[in-house]
């Protein structure tokens, strides 16, 4: 049998599996984060979301970076309310979800994500009911977060089933990615599945080199393996697209960066997590209740 056809069949079977999941299981919750800021998390999140959506998955982007929340800028759509508003006014979470290109859905956490930890039992119960509705809306939820090792971000990555760590080839970014991975792997069995994306590489070989470096320190000091998810080349199309407020997979579909995202999307769909507890379970773990 042709290998490529076999791989494709597997991916299609995965998509079907991801769409026709058994009732009660949630969406695939993926946290996109980095050690260092400004490495390209938001661009990776938004463009990956669009690529996945175009392949037939129902995708929700959750902007959980309350400091520098800017998914709206990169995506080019802004929801009327954020999660903080919904929590404060006991509203319906569906009012905070807006539609983006290719049917991608988008919700902004606002300060709501940070406030989760301080919610009363009643507020939390309301929120959890609301989150169940989001679980029904999406096959995949991509959470765009801030950078670094703050308590808030650590509680988020610690609660996730899957984490994508973005780094650039710069040594400072690699060191900060390592520190983050160290934290994640310290949680042993219950820890998330961690995958690395190298962004802004000058060449494919520089990307491979970066992956090798991170894998080597992780193996040496943490005695574990880091999975690679792929890379995105440095490409002027990325900042041009940000200025146009139209994601590069839409505005420059033939660009190197868009092709790299396409590869990332196929890789992502080719892997199916063992568990899919969904958003509600994610936030329950995150709120530590
Ligand atoms: N692959 C890339 N090639 C060129 N420039 C990039 C690339 N990725 C990111 N950038 C630049 O870096 C800026 C910050 O990216 P962003 O996704 O907002 O990072 P983060 O969310 O990690 O802070 C972008 O606006 C863009 O100008
Ligand atoms: Mg960002």
Helix and strand arrangement:
Layout: H1 3-19, E1 28-34, H2 41-54, E2 59-63, H3 71-75, H4 83-88, E3 98-99, E4 105-108, H5 112-115, H6 121-137, E5 140-147, H7 151-159, E6 162-167, H8 171-185, E7 193-201, H9 204-222, E8 227-233, H10 236-244, H11 248-251, H12 256-269, H13 278-286
Parallel strand pairs: 1-5, 1-6, 2-4, 2-5, 6-7, 7-8
Antiparallel strand pairs: 3-4
The structure holds adenosine-5'-diphosphate and magnesium ion (MG).
Features:
single chain, about 290 residues, Rossmann fold, binds magnesium ion
Your description of this structure?
- The N and C termini lie far apart (50 Å).
- The protein has one domain: Rossmann fold.
- It has 13 helices and 8 strands.
- The protein is globular.
- Helix 7 (151-159) packs antiparallel against helix 13 and helix 8 packs across helix 9 (204-222).
- It has 289 residues and is an alpha/beta fold.
- It has an 8-stranded mixed β-sheet with strand order 3-4-2-5-1-6-7-8, with helices on both faces.
- Magnesium ion binds next to helix 2.
